[in-house]
Design goal:
This protein is of the alpha/beta class. It has 2 domains: 155 residues, VC0802-like; 158 residues, Vaccinia Virus protein VP39 (Rossmann fold). The protein contains 7 helices and 14 strands. The strands form 2 sheets. The chain has a 7-stranded mixed sheet. Strands 10-9-8-11-12-14-13 form a 7-stranded mixed sheet. Strand 5, helix 3 and strand 6 form a beta-alpha-beta unit. Helix 2 runs parallel beside helix 3 and helix 4 crosses helix 5. The longest helix has 16 residues. The termini are far apart. The mean pLDDT is 94.
């Protein structure tokens, strides 16, 4: 019997999550909503293998008729009360609920969470850990989620113990490190399989290249440079057992130590001055970086960049995707040399 699942996503990359689900044959996509992809997965599907998704959840109920007034709280509570939670339960320290909705409502997320969480916990005879008043649920609590868009809500539970975006490989970090599902989306757009060399001239903690290797597989040369030695050390640590696939080094993004035409793919999240100030040759602006990216990109190659200002000149724009990230709205741009 197929499982009804919900993949949560960064706003803007929902179509890429849907594409990954189709390409990997994890399931059949049934709908795309705000930050969600609904799909049916066959028995035995590895739901936790999704890389572009922030999280994956098992849908326990879809509830219609959820309006903007407070009667919606009672409807959600009844739906939770009628659920057979036994098959979905797992060992842990009680349960917690996280809620979100699109648009204005006459109730808060905390009221949704408490209405649903209280009813879910009762038949399981476990404590419900509320986030109201700043409460922090235990890390091992069973995680439920309620999302509302339009007049339809879904009540779902996380099958794993941690969200998918919390990668196990990421044991070291630096300021401005890229959100792994966004890095995975950039890697998917770059189509690195079969490339000889994939380059990141501003590699940070190595997230983008590590995600690219997961798409490309072994045999592709991964080169990562950063002006900050601490970032290079973090990238080296995060590459772990696959360290032999990567070459990490300290270098200035305005003078990339790669021969002209030496990179088939370039993935880059440039320093943009809010979390990580540009340094070295980039301190006066990113023009030297884009000049170097054009120089090192091989004929027929692609550059995929997370652009916070205007798309750099001198490239042909293949595709752009605007995303919502940390309160900002950068663009993932797929570029080739014009």
């Amino acid at each position: 019997m197929a499982t009804f699942a919900v993949a949560r996503a960064v706003r803007g990359i929902e179509p890429l999550v849907a594409m990954e689900i189709r390409r990997s044959r994890i399931g059949v996509v049934r709908g795309v909503r705000h930050r969600e992809v609904w799909f049916e997965a066959p028995p035995g599907a590895d739901l936790l293998s999704l890389r572009t998704a922030d999280d994956v959840l098992l849908a326990a109920a879809v509830v219609d008729g959820i309006g903007h007034d407070r009667s919606a709280l009672g409807r959600l509570a009844r739906a939770a009360r009628e659920l057979d939670t036994g098959p979905l339960a797992r060992a842990g320290n009680g349960l917690e609920v996280s809620a979100s909705f699109v648009g204005r409502r006459n109730y808060t997320r905390f009221e949704i969470e408490d209405a649903v969480g209280t009813e879910l916990a009762r038949p399981l005879r476990v404590p419900y850990h509320s986030r109201r008043d700043g409460g922090r649920p235990p890390l091992d609590a069973m995680s439920w989620r309620v999302t509302i868009e339009g007049d339809q809500a879904v009540i779902a539970v996380r099958p794993g113990r941690r969200p998918l975006h919390r990668r196990t490989y990421k044991t070291a970090s630096v300021r401005g490190t890229l959100h792994p599902p966004v890095a995975a989306a950039m890697a998917q757009l770059a189509r690195p399989a079969g490339a000889g060399t994939v380059l990141d001239p501003c590699c940070g903690a190595g997230t983008t290249l590590i995600e690219a290797r997961a798409v490309a597989g072994p045999g592709v040369r991964m080169l990562g440079f950063d002006h900050d030695p601490a970032a290079v050390a973090a990238a080296t640590a995060n590459s772990g057992e696959h360290r032999a696939s990567f070459a990490w080094a300290v270098a200035d993004g305005g003078r990339i130590p790669v021969a002209s035409g030496g990179a088939d793919r370039v993935l880059v999240n440039p320093p943009w001055g809010r979390q990580v100030p540009p340094a070295g040759r980039l301190a006066g602006g990113l023009a030297p970086l884009w000049r170097e990216v054009r120089r090192v990109l091989a004929p027929g190659g692609l550059a995929v960049a997370l652009v916070h200002d205007e798309i750099p000149r001198g490239f042909a724009v293949e595709e752009t995707i605007r995303v919502s990230l940390s309160g900002q709205h950068p663009v993932i741009a797929v570029l080739s040399v014009s």
